[in-house]
Amino acid sequence: MHHSPNCSFEHGGRTNGIDHPAKHDEEKHGCLSTKLRPAPESSSGVAVSTWLKQRLLFAGQVILFTIIVVQAVMLYRSLALASACGIVDAGALRRQRASSQSSSSGIPQYYQTSPELFPGPTPTGEPAFLAQTNPAPFPSTTYIPPSPLETQVPIQGNKDDGNIFHMMGHYFPNPDGFGVDEYPLPQNATIKQLNMLSRHGARYPTTGSGAPMLAEKITNYTTGVLGDVEFTGPLSFLNKWQYKLGAEILVPVGKQELFDSGTLHQYMYGHLYPNNGSKIIARSTTQDRMTKTAEYFLAGFFGLDWPSNATLVLAIEGSDSTWNNSLAGYDNCPNSNKPVSAGGNNATIEWYNIYLADATERLRPHAPGFNWTVTDTYNAQSMCAYETVALGYSAFCDLFTFEEWQGYEYSVDLYFAGGYGFQSPTGRAVGIGYVQEILARLQHHVIDHPVAQINLTLDNNTATFPLDQTLNFDFSHDTNIMAILTAFGFTQFAPF
Length: 496
What we know:
Elements: E1 11-15, E2 18-21, E3 26-29, E4 32-35, H1 45-75, H2 77-85, H3 90-102, H4 130-133, E5 194-199, H5 210-222, H6 252-269, E6 280-285, H7 288-302, E7 310-315, H8 343-355, H9 357-363, H10 374-391, H11 402-419, H12 427-443, H13 456-459, E8 471-476, H14 478-488
Parallel strand pairs: 5-8, 6-7, 6-8
Antiparallel strand pairs: 1-2, 3-4
């Protein structure tokens, strides 16, 4: 058969998803229809030669057309499948082709996950509203620490089946819920808006803090930089110990914590999401662990396609310049970073020199030539917490008695109370900017006259500071959250 490239032609049946030309007893030559002619009966050599040339030309055209069709089918096989099954729109196919062309993996398009080519039925149900509908008191524990971590280390002096990981303050998830009594909603009360402020997930230690300082000291001795040492007894594991922690970013379980938190909030407040196609504004900062924290939370709340439901606004944190940022208010309070606000840190040092005196004397003989100090002992307790959340287990944990872990818990209380809480001279000043933002949300107005660390570029613009949003998700740091609680005047957090 011969088809002119300038003429239309019909398609008949399909075999294995491939279109085949319709069978007709007419062919298109030029654009005119002619019958297929049989071989001439004449024995004339000229006539036979002409007929053979025509048949050879016809065969060549058929072969050429077949090659073109095969190549077209191979090039657009996904398009042909999609058209045949009617499951993918043109926009999705364009996105899929662009994704495939930019990928060097060589994975076929139909194995890629976004956009979905064969998703099956996808109707969703109504969102939950457990905070409104639950008629019974909530259980005493609304959050259970994830299971990958070893938190049942036998501890000397643990008489009441206590758990030392409940005593690690900001280093470990609080096993007792959100720190307040939880009750069902009062009769005839309704929930109209949620303002959530969350800390980031579990993370690696801060660069230059106690745990990495102890690690550097141990490494310098075990490698001979500062002298030779042979640890013995309970410290013998240090002879082959290696420091394996990163710095400041989320550890694996920290990511899980925020995903789980997002899922919990979906059950509690999912009904408040405006299911009208609009997107909410969520806020965090540019610091890596802060950005990832917000993303994992939103993935837990909305799913992996959360950018379709929320826009994440990131306030600048940690640059050389100072930016107004209510989610990291200490950067905008000069006195917060001066000795006047060091009361919490000073009290912590004074306290651990008391409660760890016996532990230091107990450990020092097992580190001959190391000059093991009480600060090393305190940093070893911090190492227990950081290694556990990062690696699942830490041999540092059972170096201490249960009473010494209770002392550690109080050291954390002193640090937060004196540095950012009601005992701090600058705590309220650090947190007041966020309080002003909450009041503005409740009163439905933007902020044009800030009293603290308000970013007017963001808070005086309804695109980045919406006034009628029913779900507000903000992410901050533990010290900043303590300052905010102080600025709100929540005196239940005052005792220490």
